[in-house]
Please model this.
Amino acid sequence: MAASQAPKKAGVFDIRLIIALLIGGYGLVLTIMGLWFTTEEELTKAAEVNINLWAGIGMLVFAALFVLWAKLRPIVVPPSTDGEGGE
Model:
């Protein structure tokens, strides 16, 4: 009765991809803020370190690593065992 017994990948429901999307979004915003919207006054306060730029780049690298991890080692959902054991 089962349509297919082949294992399936979690795909878009993989939590690593959701985390990568959130961290990547924040990283993109911080990178843009660091590149185009940081004033000299802000740089002086931060000891001449463009922290928005560096934090944004770090977050983008982190997000890329999570996506790479999810693509190289996908979560495999085992096939359903309806009707066996259980109740």
Observations:
- Residues 15-36 form the longest helix (22 residues).
- The beta strands are 8-9, 76-77.
- DSSP finds three helices and two strands in the chain.
- The mean pLDDT is 87.
